[in-house]
Amino acid sequence: MPRTTVVESPGCLPLRALTADILGLVKVVEARTNPAGAAKVVETWGEPDASRAIVAASLADRAADPVLAVARKNGVVELLNPLNGDALAAVKTVGPALDDGSAEGDPLVALHLFTRQASDSMLGTFIACTDKGKASMRSIMKENAASGSDTEPSTMWDVCSSGNVEFFSVDHGESYAMFGGKGIEVNLWDIASCSKTWSAKSPRANSLGIFTRPWFTAGTFLFKDDHRKIVACTNNHQVRLYDTALQRRPAVSVDFREAPIKAVAADPNGHDVYIGTGTGDLASFDMRTGKLLGCYIGKCSGSIRSIVRHPELPLIASCGLDSYLRIWDTNTRQLLSAVFLKQHLTTVVIDSHFSVEEPVETNSKQPEVLVEAEAEVLKEKKKSKIIEEDEAEAEAEVQNEKKKKKSKTVEEDEAEVWKEKKKKKSKTVEKAEAEVRKEKKKKKRGTIEHDEEEDGVVDGNNSDDEMYARKEKKKNSRTEDDEERDSDSVLCTTKRRKSGQRSKCVKKKKSKKQHIS
């Protein structure tokens, strides 16, 4: 079962991409909303025909007179206008054609259209390579394209003597070409002289003495200004960095998962690359150290066949056998937009000169008068939009002022209400306090009168008690005097007690007891 996940896409920046599929259709996908919007299909060029499937595509991304070249399964290279899809020229390449119109004997596998133009009369120059390593370079003039006559190749050479070519890449200066494939080591060619300048060397045998057969599936040049550092990916899930000025063996080699790597693209910073595998995994590597920077996991359900990096914006576009064109943010590795295109996709290119502000031409043969009229209509629309925006701003300001005035009046009313409530509360509190004080005074007066009455009664009752207390005091004073007298008398000694004689003190004690009783 393929992996499918539902991901919320926030939308991407204004972008225009062209995709090619196995039915020979070219579809234009645009995101026109600024700053971010969903991408959608706006045009489809061609008729569905499996025998004319597009195997490779290349865009001469120029500000003036851009050209799109597509290589078809039947061995024909077509030049199209990338703005409206008009066919400019069609050339039969070196692939031998069979009776059914296909080139199954030696089909085209790679194509590159040169961006630079040698002269104004030249429509374009391209290099095409077949599966068996037959490379050819052709230049198409505008006169020949208009007449429909065939163009003979200016140069031809054999890239390899055996094996199958699977990828072909040209450096930024368009002076060197890199080839690789199944059974073919990565090799570098000088385009001007059609001579091989460097070839990679097979890696050393493993611990069992077994050599791995070379099988390269994708490659690119790492630097714009230096063609000596190249990145090649293998069917054995390896990413290799070669420095052609130092050695033939890879300087850095990194393994990534277990699936073969099918696509690779370099970042403009000169050290990062983006790779796509046969199981739909997308990742980025720093080739200076071979470190994995991050993965875009779980969002693709088919083999990735093409990756392209936008030269200015932080975006990459990928497509593959799951029939989706996906646009990613290179900074956050987030999916910005995904468009379902129904057929298996083989390649994608990006128009870096696309702008939302400028009107896109839909017909190259349109009269200049109509173009000027459309431009005037667009200007009037812009003016009307500006006027409407100004009016809306003025209305918004008026509404804001009204709201401010209303808020001020409401605040003043609320302040007055609060003041009145506070006054009422203070008056009621003062009244309550005065009443409480009065009640306290009354209670105090009543208690005082009651206490005075009780004191009068108690005084009458206590007069008898006082007389009795005086008598007891007199008795106590008498007893104290008697005790003092007894202390002065002579106590009986122990000798008298032993002799049995009764002393005078004993007699005195008896007399005291009798007196007290």
From TrEMBL:
GO terms for cellular component: nucleolus; preribosome, large subunit precursor. Residues 427-438 have a biased composition (Basic and acidic residues). Residues 494-517 have a biased composition (Basic residues). SUPFAM superfamilies: Quinoprotein alcohol dehydrogenase-like. Transmembrane segments: none annotated. Residues 392-517 are annotated as: Disordered. One of its GO terms (biological process) is ribosomal large subunit biogenesis. InterPro entries: Quinoprotein_ADH-like_sf, WD40/YVTN_repeat-like_dom_sf, WD40_repeat_CS, WD40_rpt, WDR74/Nsa1. The keyword Repeat applies. PROSITE patterns: WD_REPEATS_1, WD_REPEATS_2. WD repeats lie at residues 297-338. Residues 450-466 have a biased composition (Acidic residues). Keywords: Repeat, WD repeat. It comes from the Eukaryota. This is Transducin/WD40 repeat-like superfamily protein.
